[in-house]
């Protein structure tokens, strides 16, 4: 077997990114400035959004979006349990009540057909998460939003480059929030972007992200600027730095190539693991879309094995294959079990996936040999532990 550990993900950082960061460091301007402006503009154009506002993370973007929408304490927000906890935690932190809707068993995206029964007079928004980079079925979600006057906030952390019926995520009639964490399809180290056609929301998020200051600092210190500013509301400190955007402006032109390579590896896994009865492979949604393949997440059929999912991951690690866990369902985490208990068997598909899911290595720099090693190790672990 391989002698070197293969991580489940690692970013592709090349000379262009490194040189651009060095350029920022030497320029005398390292925080929010011209490179952030450029990255915002180029990302906005790439996804086809009228407005894009950069932030220090997607979590910050979700936070400020919820504040900008001015919901009231106790208002309800519908979302999925198969997500990173921050999607749901930020609702709690804003005084909102998260209402969890079960997922589809194949795509692991929110089941749009089960949303209607969870809508109440207090429902204000739906937050679909494009799981693993595959678009949720947005048409029925937008239909419900129109019928009940709800805002759609897309958690697009996995979905830079994803398309739904020929349109890029980020250009739909909603507010979309992207993440540039190192594991995501492109990275700025840490970072996020709020994309929307709603100018008022974009302006409010821009104000809230930097002290509620009426003018951004770099403009004040620029040759043509004046140093005056005004605090028009109490704001946060969620701005992206130029040394982060320096990475982003060289990552973005590579995004489509990254997705192509991720897709090749995912298809290789699909092909090589198709006959493995102990795995349930990720399913393609039936509508037209472009899957960004942020994650490759088979479910391990633990009934057929003498080990559980965590044991499966541990044995892969012994064979030098790293894995990720995306995700233990949100309602299964300690705080949520204590504070947002879900009725028994109310989220059966999420519970099923939560106990069986793992993320196999998937990143653009992986070689064909790496991918073959993963397949071989998965088959070895299964053969060893078959009941
Ligand atoms: C990564 C992630 C987030 C949070 O993004 P950050 O940029 O780390 O704040 C939110 N939701 C999902 C689904 C994610 O994968």
TrEMBL record:
Signal sequence region: none
Family statement drawn from the similarity comment of this UniProt entry: Belongs to the DegT/DnrJ/EryC1 family.
InterPro entries in UniProt: DegT/StrS_aminotransferase (IPR000653), PyrdxlP-dep_Trfase (IPR015424), PyrdxlP-dep_Trfase_major (IPR015421), PyrdxlP-dep_Trfase_small (IPR015422)
GO biological process: polysaccharide biosynthetic process
Modified residues (N6-(pyridoxal phosphate)lysine): 184
Lineage summary: Bacteria, Pseudomonadati, Thermodesulfobacteriota, Desulfuromonadia, Geobacterales
Gene designation per UniProt: arnB
Isomerase keyword on record: no
Top-level taxon of origin: Bacteria
Keywords: Aminotransferase, Pyridoxal phosphate, Transferase
Classification via PANTHER family: DTDP-4-AMINO-4,6-DIDEOXYGALACTOSE TRANSAMINASE (PTHR30244:SF34), TRANSAMINASE (PTHR30244)
SUPFAM superfamilies, alphabetized: PLP-dependent transferases
Protein name: UDP-4-amino-4-deoxy-L-arabinose--oxoglutarate aminotransferase
Gene Ontology molecular function: pyridoxal phosphate binding; transaminase activity
Organism: Citrifermentans bemidjiense (strain ATCC BAA-1014 / DSM 16622 / JCM 12645 / Bem) (Geobacter bemidjiensis)
Active site: 184 (proton acceptor)
């Amino acid at each position: 077997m391989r002698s070197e550990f293969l991580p489940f993900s690692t970013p592709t950082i090349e000379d262009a990114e490194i040189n651009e960061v060095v350029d920022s460091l030497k320029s005398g301007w390292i925080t929010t400035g011209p490179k952030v402006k450029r990255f915002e503009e180029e990302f906005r154009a790439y996804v086809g959004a009228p407005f894009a506002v950069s932030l220090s993370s997607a979590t910050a973007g979700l936070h400020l979006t919820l504040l900008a929408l001015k919901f009231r304490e106790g208002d309800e927000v519908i979302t999925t349990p198969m997500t990173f906890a921050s999607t749901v935690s930020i609702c709690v932190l804003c005084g909102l009540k998260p209402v969890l809707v079960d997922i589809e068993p194949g795509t692991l995206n929110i089941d749009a057909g089960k949303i209607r029964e969870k809508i109440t007079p207090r429902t204000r928004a739906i937050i679909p998460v494009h799981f693993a980079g595959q678009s949720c079925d947005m048409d029925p979600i937008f239909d419900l939003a129109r019928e009940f006057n709800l805002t759609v906030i897309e958690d697009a952390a996995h979905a830079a480059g994803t398309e739904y019926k020929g349109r890029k995520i980020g250009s739909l009639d909603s507010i979309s929030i992207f993440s540039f964490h190192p594991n995501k399809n492109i990275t700025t180290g840490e970072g996020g972007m709020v994309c929307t056609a709603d100018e008022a929301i974009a302006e409010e998020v821009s104000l809230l992200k930097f002290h509620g200051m009426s003018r951004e600092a770099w403009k004040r210190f620029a040759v043509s600027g004046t140093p005056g500013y005004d605090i028009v509301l109490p704001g946060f400190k969620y701005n992206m730095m130029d040394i982060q955007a320096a990475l982003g402006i060289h990552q973005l032109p590579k995004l489509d190539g990254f997705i192509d390579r991720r897709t090749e590896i995912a298809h290789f896994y699909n092909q090589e693991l198709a006959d493995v009865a102990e795995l349930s492979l990720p399913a393609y949604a039936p509508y037209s879309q472009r899957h960004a393949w942020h994650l490759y997440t088979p479910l391990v059929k633990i009934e057929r094995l003498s080990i559980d999912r965590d044991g499966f991951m541990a044995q892969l690690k012994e064979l030098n294959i790293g894995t990720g866990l995306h995700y233990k369902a949100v309602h299964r985490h300690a705080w949520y079990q204590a504070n947002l208990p879900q009725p028994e068997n109310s989220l059966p598909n999420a519970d099923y996936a939560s106990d069986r899911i793992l993320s196999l290595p998937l990143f653009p720099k992986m070689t064909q040999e790496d991918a073959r090693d993963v397949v071989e190790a998965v088959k070895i672990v299964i053969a060893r532990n078959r009941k």
